Amino acid sequence: MKVNIPGLHNSDENHWQTLLEKTHPEDFIRINQENWDQPECNAWINKIERDLLTKNHLDLILIGHSIGCIAIVKWVEKFGHAIKGALLVAPSDSENENYPSYIKGFTPIPKSKLPFPTLVVGSTNDHVTTVERTKEFAANWGSKLIMLEDAGHIEPKSGFGPWPQVEVLIKELE
């Protein structure tokens, strides 16, 4: 089972995460947060835990976007579950001094190697993090790093509604 964990404001109807769910409704679920507009880390990771509690964790591939990536890493840090794998797309740098203050509790970003296969996908011109930080995240978490050229924040505004490559990346984790 694949589990989408969107970032700030959720993923709209044109976002690649939503399109995956529409294309493969039997294979994808979404963690729906109670407050998409003012993320609070403990609330988010506790919701992930509640929604996945009855699932076989070793069958799960988590697919995060932006602050959803950091939520996944913080969830693993708190609850220690091993899963099949995780695709972490455009992880946002919640430790940046200019990061929005209404996104709370996502610091410090864990630096430990994750106990399952992971892919980090970044962009050379993401406005939410730098190339250097994306590389640091991948190195810390033991992830394979894939850098896209000029892909922005890998969201609809950056041209990533339909994103066929994401299915190839997910298959790499299966």
UniProtKB/TrEMBL annotation:
Listed InterPro entries: AB_hydrolase_fold, RBBP9/YdeN
Keyword Cell membrane: no
Keywords linked to the UniProt accession: Hydrolase
Pfam (any one): Ser_hydrolase
Keyword Hydrolase attributed: yes
Family annotation (SUPFAM superfamilies): alpha/beta-Hydrolases
Gene3D superfamilies (alphabetical): alpha/beta hydrolase
An example Gene Ontology molecular-function term: hydrolase activity
UniProt xrefs under PANTHER family: SERINE HYDROLASE RBBP9
Protein name per its UniProtKB record: Alpha/beta hydrolase
